[in-house]
Amino acid sequence: MEIFWKNPSWEAEDLQLKRLRDQPFVRKFPQLGLNPGLYVIRGPRQVGKSTWLKSLLSELCRRYPAEQIIYTSCEHLKDSEDLGHFLDIHRERKVLLLDEITFVKDWDRAIKHFVDSRPFDFLIATGSNSADLRRGADTMPGRFRGGGEYFLRPMGFQEFSELRAEAGWAKASRVEELEDYFRLGGFPSAVLESGRAGALPDAVLENTWRWLLGDARKLGKSEQYLRELLGQIALTLGSTISLQKLAQRTQMGSHHTVQSYIELLEDSFALRTLHAIDLNTGAYRFKKEKKFYFTDPLIYWIALRENGLRCPENYAEKIAEMVAAEQLFRTHKKLGYLSIPAGEVDFIAMPETAIELKWSSQPQNLSKAFKNLKLPNKTVWYQENFLL
């Protein structure tokens, strides 16, 4: 791809761009603004980062002579020395697009040296490991110029619903559409594979499991431990649990080992941790039991499949709470749950919002904790107003 500009018809022949044109719907990627600078795009695999980067390549080719642009996947680069050598070869380019830069060990060293020593207009890098990208970005304060950090995540329900309508696949009711989302999730590849019928996307399930497993193996982690932990999180989804209990229910034995696997899943954009929160101070209560939520329904189904677990009868209730958690994590800086003697409240978004979830046609059996809560914004999400 480095010499794409030697082929005048590269855009028509590029497989990713061709698939994008042939899809029954087209995901609208976030607008970068494209002010000159350094951009870092984070997100899980199979979510469309490479396609987004190819779309940016097409756009930038209309602003620059193609010879001034370089695009490459970093899978063939081993470490910062390899990356530095590659950047040195292309030091005269004005635009550099680097896909999956987290394949490169200590990538930030080469990028920092390049940014400090070479004139350029755009350097855009994507990656699938949140911690690695965050550490790399933290070493470059002041070097982003007009750029910045962006996330590309699986589609939330609203985007899922809009794109299925664009494809002509919309269901008659919003609740039916939500049930499809609970089954398919928001990875574009999963939605495309499932098609109009909404069948479970087996190929994407397998590929997503391989992605999680690959991240674990790169860090020397055990496949069996990862599988067991996913299973226990699926079984306890929406309930409070301690790291010690997770260790006892798996072969890990130690809560420190459990924590390391939790961090792995968080860094792979697969898991969120919800902490108890002190309503008076707004501080997290880290010593209390936690709640764990997968970031997308697809990962829930992977957890069940890989452990040979049956789908529970109340799966829709569990996934609804998981979907609600993910939306709130994306829209609120400080999110927790409340646990007091009068009961629990599902979500507290500091400083003034409380949300209780009841996956039913009408809200009922609200806890005293929620009823007595003195916060200005209190909402019960049930089937008809879910996520609204």
General shape: globular
Secondary-structure-based class equals alpha/beta
**Range of helix content:** 40-55%
What proportion of the residues form beta strands (DSSP E)?
Answer: 15-25%
Cα separation of the termini: 43 Å
Radius of gyration: 22 Å
- Summed up, the domain count is 2
The description of the largest β-sheet is:
7 strands, mixed
Question: How would you sum up this structure, described in words?
Answer:
It is a single chain. The chain is globular. The mean pLDDT is 91. It folds into 2 domains: 4-151, 3-Layer(aba) Sandwich (Rossmann fold), CATH 3.40.50.300; 157-385, no CATH class. The chain is built from 16 helices and 12 strands. It has 388 residues and is of the alpha/beta class. Strands 6, 7, 8, 9, 10, 11 and 12 form a 7-stranded mixed sheet that branches. A 5-stranded parallel sheet has the order 2-3-4-1-5, with helices on both faces.
Summarize the structure.
This protein has 388 residues and is of the alpha/beta class. 42% of the residues lie in helices and 16% in strands. It contains 16 helices and twelve strands.
Topology at a glance:
Elements: H1 10-13, H2 15-22, E1 37-42, H3 49-61, E2 69-73, H4 80-89, E3 95-99, H5 107-117, E4 122-127, H6 130-138, E5 148-151, H7 157-166, H8 174-184, H9 188-194, H10 202-218, H11 223-235, H12 243-248, H13 255-267, E6 271-277, E7 284-285, E8 291-294, H14 297-306, H15 315-331, E9 335-340, E10 343-349, E11 353-357, H16 368-371, E12 377-381
Parallel strand pairs: 1-4, 1-5, 2-3, 3-4, 6-9, 11-12
Antiparallel strand pairs: 6-7, 6-8, 9-10, 10-11
